[in-house]
Amino acid sequence: MRRLAPLALALAAAVGCGDQGPPPEDQVRDTVAAFGRATAAKDYQALCDRILAPSLIEEVRAIGLPCEAALRQGLEDVEDPRITIGRVRVTGERASAEIRTAAAGQEPSRDTLRLQNVNGTWKISSLGS
Questions:
Q1: d(CA 3, CA 15)
Q2: Which of 33, 65, 77, 94 has the lowest CB atom count within 10 Å?
């Protein structure tokens, strides 16, 4: 019986660890990578529905454009966009990701994306600073 106790504790710890999912930094990286894929695919619907934070979408709507139309206008001429994710910092419900972007015919740039946790999902709240 004494041998089963350590085994039971190990199994309970393993199950408990599995419930937490990936660390927040990995979740932020996943969101930024999804942003890069959706941008390359010109999937403006995915960007607006799943990747951008409601606060950012509201800022775009405030200038009189639906989210998809604003993204189409800003990104339609971008060819072969690429994103490299650097340092990620998470502080509570906010995060930042240092990125390097490049596209055909454009100078590479370094930016910082800001993210916020919205109902358990990391979403981009600012596209660069």
A1: 19
A2: 77
